[in-house]
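Bench notes, bay 3.
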Amino acid sequence: MKIIQRPLYMQKILPMINTEFIKIITGVRRSGKSYLLLMIRDELLNHGVDSEQIIYLNFENPEYLDILSFDKLYQYLKEKVNSNKKVYFLFDEIQEVSQWQKLINGLRVAYDSDIYITGSNASILSGELATYLTGRYVEIKVQPLTLNEYLNFKGYSDSAEKHFNDYLEYGGFPAVVLQTDNQLKNDVLKGIFNSILLRDVTQRATIKNPEALERITLFLLSNIGQLVNVNRIANTLRSSGLKISNNTIEGYLKLLEEAYLFYKVPRYDIRGKEYLRGQGKYYVVDLGFVRSQLRRQGTNRGSMIENLVFLKLLSEGYEVFVGKYDNKEIDFVASNNDETVYLQVTDHIPQSSKRETDNLLHLATGYRKILITNSWSDVGEIDGIPVIHLVDFLTNFKGK
């Protein structure tokens, strides 16, 4: 299959090639991590690295089932490595190898090497890895396709708005985007969703109540962008006759986050400059799951476009919070090393209301403030605050 380039990530990776840091590529299953590894391999070959210096292994390939322990894998690699030359290790889904952290650290010490690994669960960044490799790795976070990437994958060169609804409905998983039949898109989405729950959640923890896990997942999908806490989820489940403890719910929520299926966005008190414990908002990694799992029931368009804005901010390298300023809510506070941006998101601005801009106007001057709307008639400027259409934001906004 032809590899479609993803410059959004390659631009981040290229400066890291041949550095001492282990490159850890993380993200939800089927988001394109494997193809990113292949792009790195091609980049190395194009720059004169001999193919014998590159060792690429995909540990979900049945061919490697008999070397899924660190000692067997090390013996296998010793036979492959030419110790007289620099070696490039590219390991896909490394978490399938038992005690892989010990192996990676050993390879780093034993060889003149450049190491790239991928994983579909955030747990690979904790535990023994942190112990062995503190300060010696960098993380590259991969998401399903942004709107710009979606247009590139489809080969579209006309108006982004013309194709936006399809992107909103079916999301940005590459395997889905490359399909043309809508029923097949739904089937692929269901398969990806079930694979995440089975392989990256259920199989990595002792799930004593799979029904509860599924119900929690559907609850989060139905309440995208809403303030949620454990008590609210527990009350909803118990009211339908499902007995479950708050501790169990907290554990399942953590597993869903570690599988990159959902992102929890904490609340931040802007005036008090502190994080607020308890309530936060959850956003899904890809909106196609809303359609495939809920058929859009229970999730409104405003919440979905808010989800898209959140994912765009992540792709631009921002750390994102839900803002609170006295009794006013700010949809997003987005920060990176260079700036803080305050954003409000709305499907449209009601003629009789200035709530969206008023919330921003109360904030201190000197910060970037943006109101994002899904209505072209709203676009312009209100009280000095730029009002940007959602599609323009998704295709043109860049972090400083």
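Next record in the batch:
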Amino acid sequence: MSSIAENNKRIAKNTLLLYVRMLFMMIVSLYTSRVVLNALGVEDYGLYNVIGGVVVMFNLLSGSLSAAISRFITYELGKGDKQKLNLIFSSAMTIQIILILIIVLLAETIGLWFLNTQMNIAEQRMEASNWVFQFSLLAFIINLISIPYNAVIIAHERMSAFAYISIVETIGKLSIAYLILISPIDRLIFYSMLMCAISCIIRYIYGRYSKKHFEECRRYKFSYDKKLLNEMFRFAGWNFIGTSSLLLRDQGTNILINLFCGATVNAARGIAIQVNTAITSFINNFMIAVNPQITKAYAENNKDYMNMLIYKSTQYSYYLLLILSLPVFFNTEYILQLWLKTVPDYTVEFVQLILILSMTDCLYRPLLTAHLATGNIKYLQIVVGGINLLNLPISFICLKIGMPPYVTLLIAIFLSLFCLFIRFYLYKKIERFSIGDFFRKVLLNISIVSIVSIILPLLFKPLIYNGFSGFVLLSVICVLSGIGTILLIGLNKDERLFLKNKAKSIIYKVRA
């Protein structure tokens, strides 16, 4: 019991550290986006967004291996095998180096061909676009090398490292936003060059930290453990399908939007992603703190604790996202006008729909972590990945017949919900897991909370005048409605009592 309490305390501490980091990053990042958009202009901002997306498409090869590396390192930490940890880390570094050679070959051939012959880019911006492509590719490669180090930090649950290093990265990006204004060369080229430089600096810091604190990172030696590499590649191979389907959903539709609608609409989608990233980073931080505990619980064969973590982390991550999303959803137009000097067409629709998509996606993340921990992911990735891949052809058809660009997000939301129930069924086939319990304790609960929490904002919105005071008032109503509904309906008696006692403890300490 004390072990579980200690684990919960560690999760709470790590989550708090990551939230402090995220509050700072969110405020600075949103302001940075405004400065960058105004400095580059809508067209160049959209170009940077879509060209970076072409480079990220090569993440199809690395994303699946990244998940494999994280899973194997965390699993062995749960087992306590230090010797195998070093073997896994060295094997991961070898894999990443080989992967970099493959990605550079593909990017400099297929990637350049696609950029220069297929994308909707003005002739006078083609040279700048090619420079952006090269700097984005270099930054991507540098980030690939960091993956094993980052996986080790997360597995050891040293979230303070992420907090401090991310603050350095955020300050660096803010500095870049202002340096663009005094650029001695083309601003778009200068911006991509400086973003690449930031990646190099952060990569060096992560490497130094990991080598100093974790024994398995101190020495790299080329190793060829056939059994281990087979396990990792088999895991990564099946995970490739799921990773590629989600990446194609996001970056593939971004390219489709460029082909059918142009770079200006890419800018609208890019702004929506910035808003969404700022909000969803809070639940991402929560899941970063929880994920190692789920994997370690499986390695220790503590299935009851693992299932409890799945239930509660799904519930809490959704509630957190709901509270943060409500004010943005009901004040989208005003927030964008306040934040940006120029609001591209379709930005409001993109922001609202991408928030809904994030809320549907957050429902499967804890379950996915548990599924990955088992290593038995073949049918999960084939079935769910196959369904998610339908995003591209359906989006292509809808855009081809003249539907608005935000239809791509409507398609993604529908398919995400459908895949959620498929995931439940497939996980139940390999582990002791009650779909009925999950539906009653989690899905039914959050559905009722979602419906009830929007009633007050819907009633008050038509009565509130536009302007800053109206924005503040409606935001307060949204937050209070969300928190109140969660406390009264979303939490059980023991959870409410726990919060009540914590509140009393904090008030007592403050008064003392």
